[in-house]
């Protein structure tokens, strides 16, 4: 078959990149500019044209239709052969047009510039991941060869140069400090800046000019860069000690540079290492005082330098504490402060941040963990959106356009909003349900709608920890107990209840089979499929297998829980309409599989994926939660940022027609620290650190809580009517929403 694009061989792996890094890439906007750069590729022999396949005008060999009688299958076969031949011819002709030729040149030039920049600045860790990617195939080998470059002799020489250069620099600095101070005014200890201190001072200026947390994402730093940081840190730690041989100013500058690097790396580890260093240096100073050999200005650090870094840390983490409550070191007349006091201030700030952050780490899933669940006598539950099937238990079936306090849910510990139904788990582990009852989705033994909350019966009797109810299809529900057993009920089509058949189940029924003996810690009811995660990190899926949503490598349905063999160490799962998202226990890896239409898998395309595939765009982040909706997906990072992908208003980007093939930060929430997210069929909720609720997406039933049913809401908006209410949990159903908080016992 003819190729769409005449083949070329990329030879630029053998060439240097410096000239392409400085190339004016804007010139590719014009055909003349592209021609000049493309001519450069040919002249340097970085691109070699290969012989083009001869244009074949002869189609497939066809039979004599007048004399031969063909079956319908044979006729279809010959028709497909003719269509394929015509398509190949069309591709060849189109690829040989002037426009296609110009476009091809532009793409090759862009690839060359990207490779030059990538080779110089891109992290090598990602290259290794790409080398082992299962997606590589013969049709894209030329493109993959750009990034799959083995470590060359040039790399080894550069690494050797960097390592020896650092070693030489450290040796020269130590030797310079050992030399007697220069004569003249300002010489001697504490005098004018010498060569050693000038080098460190320059480094401080560079680090302080960087944006906050520039070195925080280590996955974006090449291994050689991380090694250099480690060497510099080790050297500076040694310099800060009073017995290091460095002068007083050198020791002070070294401690300031170390603090700057620690704050830029944004890790508790490096901050604690700096505190340990400062306390160790202060201890040596104290010993020198006792021995009466202490020199003036020993054991100090620049006050302004320390406070600038401390304030920057507070701002980057959104600290709202009153400044009068902050501990600050005492400033000397010379503009310095004690290293010991600075260490205590920084440690106190770390503790405050940890305490502040710990309040955001309580998710709905963890409220009832352990032997003694959190129990409150009452809580305030606010409801809004569709009440067409009495899912809000508010008498009237009119939609509720803004949050309304619902007395019926007052003793709820956690609530699950499903497809026109609602489930309430009380502190004793009992479950009550209301709303639409078709297909037995309420688990009350019939298919009737339920206008008031009614208690479910579990046989054998168990205390329920969490419920997950489908937001679409014909409605089914899963629940797992405090012991880790799983019950299911409702519509049984496609085997999504996991009982080995497709029967409707109107009472909760314990799932046996592969889950028997397993301790389940998470369940999710999708539109036509289900999933569960065991305590040991195993993922099980069952139900409709179309589009590969079960992750078993095929499109076959399963009517019992089946282990997904290609991943492990799973901590959480969320099932959407035709796709599934899984999150690792450590929060470092997100997988997705199933239908990729509208980009809802986040892999940069719309392809179906039949086995779990890592969402590369989220690598390097710590993810706390993932949610799968109808045509979109969400993730919440440990720093409180929300990423969305797929299509529609759920992207929160200001358009209901937008599509994002990869996770994209929701800018409207970028300055808000989000602690929980929930997604319904086509609308989303987010809970902030300040107990405020935001909503966006479909608002046709008032489910976004804006006081109206116009929409959709294309950017996250604060839900009206909840001012002053300390909301702690949220849940989004198909077209209704709930938010609630436990009240103090003495209220």
Automatic annotation (TrEMBL):
- SUPFAM superfamilies registered for this protein in UniProt: RCC1/BLIP-II
From the UniProt record, list the RCC repeat ranges: 379-428, 429-483, 484-536, 537-586, 588-639, 640-690, 691-743
Asked if the Swiss-Prot or TrEMBL record annotates the protein with the keyword ATP-binding, the reply is: no
Q: Name one Pfam family in it.
A: RCC1
Keyword ATP-binding recorded: no
Q: Which PROSITE patterns match?
A: RCC1_2, RCC1_3
Q: Which residues cross the membrane?
A: none
Segments for region (Disordered): 125-150
UniProtKB keywords: Repeat
Q: Taking every annotated instance into account, which residue ranges of this chain make up the domain RCC1-like?
A: 374-576
Bias regions of kind Polar residues — which residues?
Answer: 130-144
What top-level branch of life does the organism fall under?
Answer: Eukaryota
PANTHER family reported in the protein's UniProt record: BTK-BINDING PROTEIN-RELATED, E3 UBIQUITIN-PROTEIN LIGASE HERC1-RELATED
Which named protein is this? E3 ubiquitin-protein ligase herc1
Provide the species name: Ataeniobius toweri
* Lineage of origin: Eukaryota, Metazoa, Chordata, Craniata, Vertebrata
């Amino acid at each position: 078959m003819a190729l769409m694009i005449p083949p070329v061989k990329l030879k630029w792996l053998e060439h240097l990149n410096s000239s392409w890094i400085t190339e004016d890439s804007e010139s590719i906007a014009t055909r003349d500019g592209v021609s000049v750069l493309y001519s450069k590729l040919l002249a340097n022999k970085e691109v070699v044209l290969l012989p083009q396949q001869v244009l074949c005008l002869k189609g497939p060999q066809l039979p004599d239709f007048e004399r031969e009688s063909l079956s319908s299958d044979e006729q279809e076969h010959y028709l497909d052969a003719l269509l394929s031949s015509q398509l190949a011819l069309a591709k060849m002709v189109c690829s040989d047009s002037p426009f296609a030729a110009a476009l091809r040149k532009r793409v090759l030039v862009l690839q060359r510039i990207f490779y030059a920049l990538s080779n110089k600045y891109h992290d090598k860790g990602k290259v290794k991941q790409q080398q082992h990617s299962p997606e590589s195939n013969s049709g894209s080998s030329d493109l993959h060869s750009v990034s799959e470059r083995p470590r060359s002799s040039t790399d080894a020489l550069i690494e050797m140069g960097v390592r020896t250069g650092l070693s030489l620099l450290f040796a020269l600095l130590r030797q310079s400090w050992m030399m007697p101070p220069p004569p003249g005014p300002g010489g001697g200890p504490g005098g004018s800046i010498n060569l050693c201190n000038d080098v460190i001072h320059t480094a401080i200026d560079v680090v302080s000019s960087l944006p906050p947390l520039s070195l925080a994402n280590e996955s974006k730093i090449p291994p050689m860069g991380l090694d250099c940081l480690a060497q510099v840190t080790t050297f500076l730690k040694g310099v800060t000690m009073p017995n290091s041989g460095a002068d007083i100013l050198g020791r002070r500058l070294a401690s300031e540079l170390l603090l700057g690097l620690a704050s830029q790396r944004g890790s508790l580890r490096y901050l604690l290492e700096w505190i340990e260093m400062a306390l160790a240096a202060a201890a040596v100073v104290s010993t020198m005082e006792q021995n009466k050999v202490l020199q003036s200005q020993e054991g100090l650090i620049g006050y302004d330098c320390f406070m600038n870094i401390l304030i920057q840390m507070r701002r980057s983490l959104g600290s709202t504490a009153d400044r009068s409550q902050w501990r600050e070191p005492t400033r000397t007349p010379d503009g310095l402060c004690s290293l010991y006091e600075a260490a205590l201030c920084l440690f106190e700030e770390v503790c405050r941040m940890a305490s502040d952050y710990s309040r955001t780490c309580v998710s709905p899933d963890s409220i009832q963990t352990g032997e003694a669940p959190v129990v409150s006598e009452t809580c305030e539950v606010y409801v809004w959106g569709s009440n067409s099937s009495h899912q809000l238990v508010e008498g009237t079936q009119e939609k509720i356009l803004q949050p309304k306090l619902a007395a019926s849910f007052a003793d709820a510990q956690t609530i699950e909003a499903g497809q026109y139904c609602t489930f309430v788990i009380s502190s004793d582990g009992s479950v009550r349900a209301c709303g639409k009852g078709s297909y037995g989705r309420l688990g009350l033994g019939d298919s009737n709608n339920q206008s008031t909350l009614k208690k479910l019966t579990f046989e054998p009797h168990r205390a329920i920890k969490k419920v997950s109810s489908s937001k679409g299809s014909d409605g089914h529900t899963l629940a797992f107990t405090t012991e880790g057993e799983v019950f299911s009920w409702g519509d049984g089509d496609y085997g999504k209840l996991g009982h080995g058949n497709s029967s409707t189940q109107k009472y909760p029924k314990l799932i046996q089979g592969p889950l028997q003996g397993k301790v389940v810690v998470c369940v999710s009811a999708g539109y036509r499929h289900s999933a569960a995660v065991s305590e040991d990190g195993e993922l099980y899926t069952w139900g409709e297998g179309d589009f590969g949503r079960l992750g078993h490598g095929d499109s076959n349905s399963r009517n019992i829980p089946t282990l997904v063999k290609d991943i492990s160490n799973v901590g959480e799962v969320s099932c959407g309409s035709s796709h599934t998202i899984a999150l690792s226990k450590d929060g470092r890896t997100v997988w997705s599989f199933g239908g990729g239409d509208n980009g809802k898998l986040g892999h940069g395309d719309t392809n179906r994926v039949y086995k779990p595939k890592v969402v590369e765009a989220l690598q390097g982040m710590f993810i706390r939660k993932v949610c799968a909706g109808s045509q979109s997906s969400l993730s919440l990072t440990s720093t409180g940022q929300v990423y969305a992908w797929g299509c529609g208003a759920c992207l929160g980007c200001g358009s209901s027609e937008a599509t994002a093939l990869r996770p994209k930060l929701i800018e409207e929430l970028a300055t808000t620290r989000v602690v929980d997210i929930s997604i319904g069929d086509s609308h989303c909720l987010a809970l902030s650190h300040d107990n405020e609720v935001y909503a966006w997406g479909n608002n046709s039933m008032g489910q976004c809580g804006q006081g109206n049913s116009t929409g959709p809401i294309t950017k996250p908006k604060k839900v009206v009517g909840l001012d002053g209410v300390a909301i702690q949990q949220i849940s989004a159903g198909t077209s209704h929403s709930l938010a609630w908080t436990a009240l103090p016992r003495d209220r």
